[in-house]
């Protein structure tokens, strides 16, 4: 058996284990361990499960994940955000699927203070899913919307993926951030369109309120948004006035949320500990999967299976449209299994020279790549954003139901991708005019 | 079996408490670092290292068993839920076996590493300080070992139909019915 | 052909990764195709994972940034810290990294049994080292006198720079390199003590206004190590071929950083950033600090890690730094540098007994 064949077989086994409802983190670690053993030696396999799990988790930038999760959990348990949703409901209730649309706008707003799509889904999932369920939204629509809206978190700056890409491809991170803004907004608008269309086609998905809301009540609802807005202003203000860095923003945000909740008399020790406990279990269950994906990446790199899959598609040819379609396909396939940073690290050594050869802008490609990697966050079988939402809803909605809810949005994502590819100026306008 | 479950419950509760405290400390420590840096021009030495090597490592590994007890680990039901109940039950046992096996391996390996890091007194240089980190390596064998134990216990309880001494919490459900 | 794997911690398409790829070509050429090498940029091992990964055989060769592993490589770290020697009169100069890479490689490869033992304890063998150019102070605010340094928040990426900042009355701040750009642009930091290559590599050029050379100094040593079992399993001919290429890698790596630093400073000037030697007053203060600090280094490595060879290493490195400053005088190209390293250091190693 060649090395590449071992790698591909490993992926096959992984697929079977995950389909057989093994825990994903466990399956990833098991396949990588046995794969490295077969491929190299017992020592290599034994060595990797020693060094990689600890080193992966001992990461300062990664610490923003539990902190943004904690911010979300605190906000939820102390009802910091319910005002936002009362306001959103009041103002958007005339629209079909108003709450789902509010969740998308909420994610876009939260994206501006969150570097990762996971933290964004986690926070908005906590806030919006229970609200939608309470209002008899179809579970698939409710959970699907929030899972996909989280991906806006990695498009609108700050973004951990864009920072890593900028460092690797040697593109200015500031320029990438500017490029990400329009792609993020376009994505959000696309999702809003999906909600409107779906609810139009099937009004039962999101029942409308019976009576219209008087203007006075709408204005009153706006006033209730101050708690969450003051936390957001604190995070933004601190970031842009040089008080703290994006990684530190999560902890500061959580701290601010605690203070605001205490001032409103909503904080109890019980709620505080509950938020911390949920943060801890969610963090552990997410990071152990990322650890597994990180191990799998080494297995795929050493076996050459990652290279093999990418090159097979790139070999498609000289026609730029076919080439781009090939690249998109590679990332959609990789995105099914790998976490974004893993698949980015795995493929950039091969993809970047191709991008250079095709004469594409590295800045444009970075944003398109982020979009592609983020689609991977919501595709089965391993869709991290979906799992986060699953963590929020517990046993009430199955993972496959959430994946079904996501499907519609993936179609829109593909259309947004085509638009961004056909009209690169959509991404390049802000960096060229304001960079 | 029930008394073993109670004992295990005690261990998991302790793990849960320690990890929860780490989340809170992470928030306070980073906030204090930023405050001291901004107001007094005096950052707290070693913040990055302590956050990465202590809080993150403890939360990641020590909380694994807690997540297992609460069924918070992530699986995909897409295909499995279409299978007959008997097959699903057997797959469930297989899952416990695989989890226990993988994490016993990680615990054993983590123990070896923790021993060697303790022997050399592993430390990280941050600024002009050396911050000892060898202690944090013990979180891996302890956390992975606890995770494996919980999986083994759940396997025995489920396979032999004995009463479960581990009481799963219902936080997530309660949340939705608030 | 026998294929070696090299796990590098730098991103693809970066200068240092290019140096590793040239190393791979050189290994193949020098061994007549008997040895080949595949370079894995960042995908196989990160810098933090490199030591354990190399020890356990995940890769055959890797760049080991030893300051990441304080307890494992105290002797090598102490010798690297002596790079501040290159700021002293008679040794300083824009090409001092070419000399320091020669000096540190010669010392470790030929004169330091304690270093060899330390590396072997990690199941590795030392293959020589390149060096970055001297660190320069890169600031968003002007720093022209010792008084200006007081209270300034300065990113310190290692022990020397932190001690330096404290001694100058500034505030050393630990911040990850990937966050430094934002920290500078938002005012979390006033300055960073960084390699001038990072002006371009981490976009500092978009935010700093002043670059001061000769302050605080200090160079980062970039050693390559090989898995010990893998080395011992090679034939004499393959070992000789590899050793010849090691001279080339040390030269390529040092040259890449040298050129990137020059480019960083040239591009900065083009942007209207002030790039100049620090004021004489500051340089004098810096040199006084360095002389005192050398003894602090020796003392602290003895106390913290039981490194006993400090005083003799300082004397040895002073002598070699002087010798190498003369040797590199006529060097104009990377090929000449590689030849010089080969003749003066790497050719003198008996590959049959080295690392056995
Ligand atoms: Na964001
Ligand atoms: Na996916």
TrEMBL record, chain A:
Q: Does the keyword Cell membrane apply?
A: yes
The compartments listed are: Cell inner membrane
Subunit text: The complex comprises the extracytoplasmic solute receptor protein and the two transmembrane proteins.
Query: What protein name is recorded for this chain?
Result: TRAP transporter large permease protein
What does this protein do, in the record's words? Part of the tripartite ATP-independent periplasmic (TRAP) transport system.
Q: Which GO terms describe its cellular component?
A: plasma membrane
Native source organism of the sequence: Pseudodonghicola xiamenensis
Q: Which residues cross the membrane?
A: 12-39, 51-74, 94-120, 141-168, 174-199, 225-244, 279-301, 313-334, 346-369, 375-393, 405-430
Question: Which segments constitute the TRAP C4-dicarboxylate transport system permease DctM subunit domain?
Answer: 11-426
Q: Per the similarity annotation, which family is this?
A: Belongs to the TRAP transporter large permease family.
Membrane among the record's keywords? yes
TrEMBL record, chain B:
Which Pfam family, just one, is annotated for this protein? Answer: DctQ
Q: Which InterPro entries match?
A: DctQ (IPR055348), TRAP_DctQ (IPR007387)
Q: Which GO terms describe its cellular component?
A: plasma membrane
Stated name of the protein? TRAP transporter small permease protein
- Give the way it sits in the membrane: Multi-pass membrane protein
In this chain the Tripartite ATP-independent periplasmic transporters DctQ component domain maps to 26-158
The domain of life for this entry's organism is: Bacteria
Query: Could you state one GO biological process linked to this protein?
Result: C4-dicarboxylate transport
Organism, per UniProt? Pseudodonghicola xiamenensis
Q: Which family does it belong to?
A: Belongs to the TRAP transporter small permease family.
**Which keywords label this protein?**
Cell inner membrane, Cell membrane, Membrane, Transmembrane, Transmembrane helix, Transport
What function is annotated for this protein?
A: Part of the tripartite ATP-independent periplasmic (TRAP) transport system.
Localisation: Cell inner membrane
Q: Which residues cross the membrane?
A: 7-28, 48-67, 90-108, 137-156
Q: Name one GO molecular function term.
A: transmembrane transporter activity
Quaternary structure and interacting proteins, as annotated: The complex comprises the extracytoplasmic solute receptor protein and the two transmembrane proteins.
């Amino acid at each position: 058996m060649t090395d590449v064949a071992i790698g591909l077989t490993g992926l096959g086994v992984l697929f079977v284990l995950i389909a057989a409802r093994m825990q994903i983190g466990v399956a990833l670690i098991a396949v990588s361990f046995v794969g490295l053993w077969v491929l190299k030696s017992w020592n290599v396999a034994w060595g990797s499960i020693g060094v990689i799990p600890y080193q992966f988790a001992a990461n300062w930038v990664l610490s923003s994940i539990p902190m943004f999760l904690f911010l979300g959990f605190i906000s939820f348990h102390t009802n910091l955000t319910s005002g936002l949703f009362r306001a959103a409901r009041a103002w958007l209730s005339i629209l079909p699927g108003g709450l789902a649309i509010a969740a998308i706008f909420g994610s876009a707003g939260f994206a501006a203070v969150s570097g990762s799509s996971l933290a964004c889904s986690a926070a908005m999932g906590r806030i919006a899913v229970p609200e939608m369920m309470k209002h008899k939204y179809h579970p698939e629509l409710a959970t699907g919307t929030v899972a996909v809206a989280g991906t806006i978190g990695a498009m609108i700056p700050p973004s951990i993926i864009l920072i890593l890409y900028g460092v690797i491809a040697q593109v200015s991170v500031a320029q990438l951030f500017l490029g990400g803004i329009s792609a993020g907004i376009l994505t959000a608008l696309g999702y809003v369109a999906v909600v409107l269309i779906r609810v139009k086609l099937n009004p039962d998905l999101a029942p409308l309120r019976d009576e219209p809301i008087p203007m006075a009540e709408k204005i009153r609802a706006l006033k209730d948004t101050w708690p969450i807005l003051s936390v957001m202003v604190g995070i933004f203000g601190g970031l842009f006035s040089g008080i703290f860095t994006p990684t530190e923003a999560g902890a500061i945000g959580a701290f601010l949320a605690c203070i605001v909740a205490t001032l409103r008399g909503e904080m109890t020790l019980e709620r505080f500990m509950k938020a911390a406990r949920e943060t801890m279990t969610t963090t552990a269950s997410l990071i152990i999967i990322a650890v597994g994906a990180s191990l799998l990446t080494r297995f795929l790199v050493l076996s050459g299976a990652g290279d093999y899959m990418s090159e097979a598609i790139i070999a498609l040819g000289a026609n730029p449209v076919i080439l781009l379609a090939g690249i998109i396909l590679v990332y959609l396939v990789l995105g099914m299994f790998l976490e974004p940073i893993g698949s980015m690290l795995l493929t950039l050594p091969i993809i970047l020279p191709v991008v250079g050869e095709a004469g594409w802008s590295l800045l444009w490609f970075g944003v398109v790549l982020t979009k592609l990697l983020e689609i991977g966050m919501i595709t089965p079988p391993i869709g991290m954003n979906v799992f986060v939402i699953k963590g929020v809803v517990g046993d009430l909605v199955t993972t496959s139901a959430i994946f079904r809810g996501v499907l519609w949005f993936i179609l829109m994502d593909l259309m947004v991708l085509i638009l961004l590819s056909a009209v690169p100026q959509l991404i390049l306008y802000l960096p060229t005019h304001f960079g | 079996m029930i008394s073993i479950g109670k004992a295990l419950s005690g261990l998991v509760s302790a793990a849960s408490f320690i990890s929860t405290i780490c989340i809170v400390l992470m928030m306070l420590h980073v906030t204090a670092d930023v405050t001291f840096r901004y107001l007094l021009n005096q950052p707290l030495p070693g913040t990055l290292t302590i956050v990465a090597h202590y809080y993150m490592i403890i939360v990641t590994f020590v909380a694994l068993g807690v997540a297992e007890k609460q069924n918070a680990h992530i699986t995909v039901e897409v295909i499995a839920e279409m299978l007959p109940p008997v097959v699903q039950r057997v797959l469930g046992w297989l899952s416990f076996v695989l989890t226990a096996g993988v994490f016993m391996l990680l615990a054993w390996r983590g123990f070896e590493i923790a021993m060697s890091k303790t022997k050399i007194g592993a430390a990280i240089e941050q600024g002009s300080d050396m911050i000892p980190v060898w202690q944090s390596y013990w979180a891996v064998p302890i956390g992975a070992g606890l995770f494996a134990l919980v999986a083994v216990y759940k396997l025995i309880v489920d396979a032999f139909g004995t009463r479960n001494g581990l009481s799963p919490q219902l936080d997530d459900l309660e949340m939705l019915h608030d | 052909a026998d294929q070696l794997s090299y796990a590098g911690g730098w991103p693809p398409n970066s200068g240092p990764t290019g140096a590793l790829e040239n190393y791979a070509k050189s290994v193949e050429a020098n061994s007549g195709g008997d040895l080949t090498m595949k370079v894995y940029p960042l995908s196989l091992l990160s810098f933090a994972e490199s030591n354990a990964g190399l020890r356990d055989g995940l890769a055959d060769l890797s760049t080991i940034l030893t300051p990441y592993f304080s307890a494992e490589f105290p002797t090598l770290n102490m010798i690297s810290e002596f790079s501040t020697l290159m700021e002293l009169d008679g040794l300083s100069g824009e090409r001092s990294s070419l000399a320091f890479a020669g000096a540190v490689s010669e010392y470790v490869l030929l004169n330091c049994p304690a270093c060899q033992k330390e590396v072997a304890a990690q199941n590795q063998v030392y293959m020589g080292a390149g060096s970055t150019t001297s660190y320069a102070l890169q600031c968003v605010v002007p720093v022209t006198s010792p008084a200006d340094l007081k209270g300034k928040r300065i990113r310190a990426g290692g022990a020397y720079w932190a001690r330096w900042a404290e001694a100058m009355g500034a505030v050393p701040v630990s911040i990850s390199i990937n966050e430094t750009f934002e920290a500078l642009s938002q005012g979390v930091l006033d300055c960073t003590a960084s390699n001038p290559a990072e002006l371009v590599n981490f976009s500092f050029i978009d935010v700093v206004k002043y670059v001061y050379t000769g302050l605080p100094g200090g160079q980062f040593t970039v050693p390559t190590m090989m898995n010990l079992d893998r080395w011992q399993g090679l034939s004499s001919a393959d070992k000789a071929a590899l050793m010849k290429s090691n001279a080339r890698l040390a030269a390529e790596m040092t040259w890449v950083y040298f050129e990137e630093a020059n480019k960083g400073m040239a591009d900065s000037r083009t942007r209207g950033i002030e790039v100049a030697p620090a004021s004489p007053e500051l340089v004098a203060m810096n040199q006084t600090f360095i002389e005192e600090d050398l003894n602090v280094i020796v003392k602290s490595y003895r106390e913290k890690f039981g490194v006993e060879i400090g005083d003799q290493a300082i004397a040895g490195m002073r002598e070699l730094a002087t010798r190498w400053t003369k040797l590199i005088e006529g060097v104009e190209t990377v090929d000449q540098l590689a030849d010089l390293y080969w003749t003066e250091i790497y050719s003198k190693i008996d590959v049959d007994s080295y690392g056995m």
